[in-house]
Model the fold of this input.
Amino acid sequence: MITCYLRYTIDPFKIHEFETYGKMWIPLVAKFGGTHHGYFLPHEGANNMAIAMFSFPSLAAYEIYRASAADDAECQAAMRYYRETKCFLSYERSFMRPIFE
Done:
């Protein structure tokens, strides 16, 4: 299993828009065989940072998701929403290997 960890720098004045963006992606990850662990919005501390995490059975499965998402109308709509709202300024993507025991 591989978990994608995304750290976003968000516009704190567009938190509602970022939340809408996140809610668009959660079912899309599941649509392509992943498990979304949620988006995490600022509560205490820095007001311009958000996190998302989702897992796929393997890095190869993640790559299939990326290729499939590029041609998917719902994924394209989510990206269009981002371009229209500019609800985040940047993001960093890391891949982690979870340990359960």
Notes: The chain has a mean pLDDT of 95. The chain has one domain: 2-93. The beta strands are 2-10, 35-40, 49-56, 88-96. The two ends are 14 Å apart (CA to CA).
